[in-house]
Design goal:
The complex is a heterodimer of chains A (187) and B (140). The radius of gyration of chain A is 23 Å and the shape is globular. Chain A is built from seven helices and no strands. Chain A has 187 residues and is mainly α. Chain B is elongated and about 60 Å long. Chain B has one domain (5-134). Chain B is mainly α and 140 residues long. Chain B starts with a helix and ends in a 6-residue tail after the last helix. The chains are: A mainly alpha (187), B mainly alpha (140). Chains A and B meet through helix 3, helix 6 and helix 7 of A and helix 2, helix 3, helix 4 and helix 5 of B.
Chain lengths: 187, 140
Amino acid sequence: MNLDLTIDVLLLAFMAVIAIAVVRMRDLFGIAMLFSVFSLLSAGVFTVMDAADVAFTEAAVGAGVSTILMLATLTRTAREEQPKRSRNPTLPLIVVFVTGALLVFGTSDLPRMGDASAPAHHHVAPRYIEDSEREIGIPNIVTSVLASYRGYDTLGETTVIFTAGVAVMALLGIRRRRRREEPGEED
Amino acid sequence: MLHHTVLRVVAKLLIPMILLFALYVQFHGDYSPGGGFQAGVIFAAGIILYALIFGLEDTMDALPPGVLKILSPLGVLIYAGVGVDTLLLGGNFLDYNFLAHEPTHGQHLGIFLVELGVGVTVFSTMLLLYYAFAGREPGQ
């Protein structure tokens, strides 16, 4: 059997198991950790797809920093999710199934993965692949696209991150904890 | 402040390597996967690991929030400044060809500076977010 396919199926199966576990769990600490594992697995999926840059970002941001931020947030709230009286699940179940069926139906129209005749591979991608070495002169095409061809977008993304930081500063601010100093106790 | 010896020793070994790897990702992004965004996150993760093991107070002493609050907009300014610079040199906004005599040299320089801007902003913002969330007493 194709090795790529085996790895894909394994990774996706693990992801499905984790997603179900997250829905069923009440312990928020465990859920945060499972989300981290989920991110790591999707980074694995991206690696199998040869999207090293995306996998890198997913592993660093999704599995790393966002988990830490989620855990830090947990210290400010309860550790357990409040059990909620559930209403009749029939209607939500129908909505979920119909939406899922529509999504699966929608994928039947998409080109197969790696299809050379897919529209995405005929727009600007050939130009990047053929001309970026000459025009930009660096081997990593992803960096060429990100920083040069699509420099505007990256500037926008950077501004978004900065804005997010400003928003958190405005809402929470940074309070320095009082240092609990006992005289004579040096570490 | 925790007193787990194993954690402290392992962290002391790992943190310099994490920071070095972040710099590698930052400045080697032209040739290998990675770039400013990933580098900024990894660098912030290294500092956060230090804060987790050795305490937030010591980390804030070493890297005060005030400095990070300057670094965070500085990255965006570096990025946008490169764009304004290319405008002044006669090109379009963010058209790095005009940064040097040779177009590809200009591109190299432009990408280097732009990625540096991204890295600085991402690093400082991630760390500021961590400070903001972790710096509060539980349940406050």
